[in-house]
């Protein structure tokens, strides 16, 4: 083995061993990292096992909406959601700490004992932080809205937006909330022009990112079966136009083609 090959072998072994050591140190030393699906922002957590869900705290505080505002504490708490109530949006109120990050979860049912046999694990809807909002689709039965622990006391403004009903296709510009109550489970999401194009799927007790892109976008996405879904469109940073086209469910007859003009 010549000197050059020995140097290469030594360097490769040293690099491999060093990589293993660095990964091991990072695993035990650094906090957990995650990507915010809505903004792409890198989030630094405190590591697995450090976060306590609000329903695991004995004697959780019941919160109320007073004059369109819900006031929370560092310990979090829960808000009652009457069955059949209107779609609502939570937005951080002015005066909150800029570093505040309040996780929001929706639970089907009103039980507060996680050990109960009929306990329904709450689904994550998003977080309240500067320039954000959380859209909540209440179910037909009573439920709870949980708020996680925070750095300090906080407040959120509660509004009741009107979602635009859609059937097979919707187009627009800027932000929108679209309510779909059909059987389609997938669709095509297009955006032309500049700016972000984010689409979230809001269902009872859940939120999922369908599209997270910028400028020219032409993507397909799917979602779990549900009787109602709200498409949360965020596209207000540029001059882009968007179109959402839902797929025809299997076995359903497509819309008839328009009759050509004579």
Mean pLDDT: 82
> Would you count the extended β strands for me?
21
The helix tally amounts to 1
CATH architecture of the largest domain: Sandwich
Beta-sheet strand percentage?
35-45%
Sequence of strands across the biggest β-sheet: 3-6-11-8-9
Classify the helix fraction into a percent range.
10-25%
Total number of domains: 3
Largest sheet geometry: 5 strands, mixed
Look at the structure and give the CATH class of the largest domain.
Mainly Beta
**Global morphology:** globular
Low-confidence stretches: 2-13, 19-49, 257-262
CATH topology of the largest domain: Jelly Rolls
Can you give a write-up of this model?
The chain is mostly beta strands and 262 residues long. It folds into 3 domains: 3-30; 54-159, Jelly Rolls (Sandwich); 164-246, Jelly Rolls, CATH 2.60.120. It is built from 1 helix and 21 strands. The strands form 5 sheets. The chain has a 5-stranded mixed beta sheet with strand order 3-6-11-8-9, with no helix packed on it. Strands 4-5-12-7-10 form a 5-stranded antiparallel beta sheet, with no helix packed on it. A 5-stranded mixed beta sheet has the order 13-15-20-17-18, with no helix packed on it. The protein is globular and about 50 Å long. Keywords: Membrane, Transmembrane, Transmembrane helix.
């Amino acid at each position: 083995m010549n000197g050059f090959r020995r140097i290469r072998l030594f360097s490769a072994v040293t690099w491999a061993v060093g990589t293993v050591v660095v990964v091991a140190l990072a695993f035990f030393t650094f906090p957990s990292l995650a990507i915010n699906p809505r903004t792409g922002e890198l989030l630094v957590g405190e590591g697995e096992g450090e976060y306590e869900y609000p329903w695991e705290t004995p004697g959780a505080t019941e919160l109320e909406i007073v004059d369109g505002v819900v006031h929370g504490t560092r310990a979090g708490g829960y808000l009652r959601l009457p069955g059949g109530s209107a779609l609502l949006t939570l937005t951080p109120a002015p005066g909150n700490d800029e570093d505040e990050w309040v996780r929001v979860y929706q639970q089907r049912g009103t039980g507060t004992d996680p050990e109960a046999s009929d306990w329904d694990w709450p689904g994550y809807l998003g977080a309240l932080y500067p320039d954000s909002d959380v859209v909540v689709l209440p179910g037909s039965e009573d439920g709870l809205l949980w708020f996680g622990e925070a750095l300090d006391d906080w407040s959120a403004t509660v509004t009741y937006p009107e979602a635009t009903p859609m059937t097979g296709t919707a187009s627009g510009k800027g932000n929108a909330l679209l309510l779909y109550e059909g059987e389609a489970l997938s669709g095509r999401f297009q955006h032309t022009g500049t700016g972000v194009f984010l689409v979230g799927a809001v269902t009872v007790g859940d939120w999922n990112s369908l599209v997270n892109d910028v400028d020219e976008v032409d993507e397909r996405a799917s979602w779990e079966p549900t009787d109602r879904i709200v498409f949360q469109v965020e596209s207000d940073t540029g001059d882009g136009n968007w179109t959402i086209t839902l797929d025809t469910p299997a076995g359903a007859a497509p819309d008839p083609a328009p009759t050509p003009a004579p």
